[in-house]
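TEACHING EXERCISE
Course module: macromolecular assemblies
Task: Read the component lines below, then compare them to the predicted structure of the full complex.
Student: A.B.
Group: 4
Components provided:
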Amino acid sequence: MTLVIKLFISILGLIFITVPWFYTTEPNPADQGFPNWFIYSLLMTVIFSIFICYAIGRFWDQLADENAMGPDLNKKG
Amino acid sequence: METHFLDFQDRPIAMDSGFLLSVTFMMAVIAGYLLYAPRLYCLSRQKRYLTTADFIQDRYKYRPLSILISLIGVVALCNFILSNLKAIGLFIESGSANISMAQGVITFAFIVVLYETLGGMRSVAWTDVLQGLVLFIGCILIFGVIIFHLDGLHVLSINLRNVRPEFWSPPTLHQKISWLSSILIVGFGISLYPQAIQRIYAAKSKLVLKRSLQVMVFLPLVTTLFMLTVGWVGAAKIPGLGKEASDTITVQMLNFIVTEVPQMQILLVVFVAAVFAAIMSTVDSSLLSISSSITKDIYAPLRPHSSQAELTLFGKLISWILMAAMTILALITQDTIWRLIEIKLELLIQITPAILLGIHTKRVSAGPVFAGLIVGTIITLLYVITIKLGSNIPVRPFGIHAGLWGLLVNCVIIGIGSLLKKRISC
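Instructor-supplied answer key:
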């Protein structure tokens, strides 16, 4: 699996978990402050941003490398 | 580039806690850049690309494909200008007792097209820098006033529970699917804006581009999130806001802040300047991108012996004609600003496979990409038009945008087409 596919899958996975899928119950009226699903989503979004920042620094040069494209199957010979 | 990232701050805020997704989708834009910008920047340095279609033509060597991608970009950008003109019209109308939306939109459009015609790319770049700074400072000031002079975040959340008990309810499954769909369509769609791609080409160096993206990924936390908070304070302070009225919540909140804290009148001036700045920045760069795309990708190949002066004149003429058309449409369209943004991105996301596959693999050829793009675009357009004609079908089938369904078919066609081509050549 090439680096770009691994990154693509990681990005999709991280985006997926920013959605508060597992929070279904109504917040308790006695609770104060922001609800848990909101805090969860915000936290996951911060983690997502840290990952992207790291990936830009770590993988930029590898992603820019032409050799990572693989062979040109349309070329004859 | 920084103002491109602040684009969503000038949008009136949706009155919904679920709009928290806008922070994520602004970050997803940078994720989209990560997937194609490193290689595209290198290629643009070697081959001196100017437009998106330059790369497509160089990679696939198929003129109909590059023209189609150029046209999709132009349509998306026209829609972009349209949503911005509507936003500025509503902003002016709700903030002033004496100026109508029509007067505001026409005056604004005239000023932008005039300075874009006189100045070109350099004026756009410099105004972007200044406008981005003003907008950034405006966002932080407004958020600061809400935290320190009004209620603060804790009281805000309690007020919202009291005034709108449903506000903090977790999204339903259907809403969660739409949430994911919105992040994908906005994240990948915005990263492929023609003017965004042109700015990657124009980056001063690899290091500058890389560093700016690393900073930009965190900006939604202090811009989008801050302005969402302003909208949520509005939801608590101004009960009973409808969908249409929520388009003007920013102005209503500014008026509210000034009423509560009169010494903050200067803030109103700063923020109004910031909103104008952001929309001007967005519209002028879109206009410039449209005129360069039409001139270079469509007009120049048809008239290969045209002089540079003729091409420039044609580009400027296109800017004026399109701006006039978008001004008229902005005054008559009934769509909300958010819906206009969605339609634009649903179309633009169809070019994702052509760009990403074109950059990262040589195994995909022009035929399947062209077929996939045509079918994906037609599916998206048919769906949008059917809804426009008043059909009762849902805007997002199963919670997923029509553009993503179109993209799915687009990718399947590319996959099958490439496999068939490989077998035939074997």
